[in-house]
Predict the structure.
Amino acid sequence: MDLLPPEKAISVKNLHKSFGDLHVLKGIDLDIHRGEVVVLIGSSGSGKTTLLRCLNFLAEYEQGQIHIDEKLMWYRDVECLQKRPIKKIAHDRAAIGMVFQSFNLFPHRTVLENIILGPTKIKPIRVPKPEATEEALALLDRVGLLEKADAYPNTLSGGQQQRVAIARALAMGPKVMLFDEVTSALDPELVGEVLNVMRQLARDGMTMVVVTHEIHFALDAADKVLYLDQGKIAEQGPPEQVLFSPQSSHLKDFLKRFEEMTLLNQRGTSTGGQTRT
């Protein structure tokens, strides 16, 4: 008996995005199935973050289609790219969680208050506060921070704040999670605690698109790695194939530079230096 193909969580067709005269995305085609973890790698300016921001419409695009769960997103008319009403865009965006490099927690609110704000005030169908609180506490337990529910962000380490940010995104009940270099602002000793939470999400079947230079995470958790170069997907495939058997000279050079920077960072950390990528 033939197995049915997995359903697509994300489908991107011929996506183009420019900032003025700078053409950043040049015809991206991408399919991600439910439960897949896709890692995006590439040099600065290759279009990784812009692609994420287009997926949840933090950046508008000039051409192309984005489907989430096989539903056309953001525009009503593909030909002229007529935007959907603002309320409809906000409703659809709730299905896509995004975690940024910066934590963006409200400093005057406790950890618990930060997490319940979205479900009780922003989610299209408001969640009653008692229910949102119960769910928030369960999420804090999931990310290992239940004891910090009443703490304020400035009392937490960077890794703890990022885990709160992940819990806050999950509180909206997203179908897809986007991560934009979420460990790049952390001290090296704090990176692991955030990646462990992300690994658990992957094991739980969350569909994830992750921009990162954490190669070990890609090898451990990713189903597919995409290498972006000058606004195009230059190579893609299983992590071992892309990372250990690169085909293009550009990807070989990128991986070599990355390896050299990683060794330099490790040397700086071991000697008490401040060198960071």
In short: Residues 266 and 275 are 9 Å apart (CA to CA). The chain has a mean pLDDT of 87. The first helix runs from residue 48 to 55.
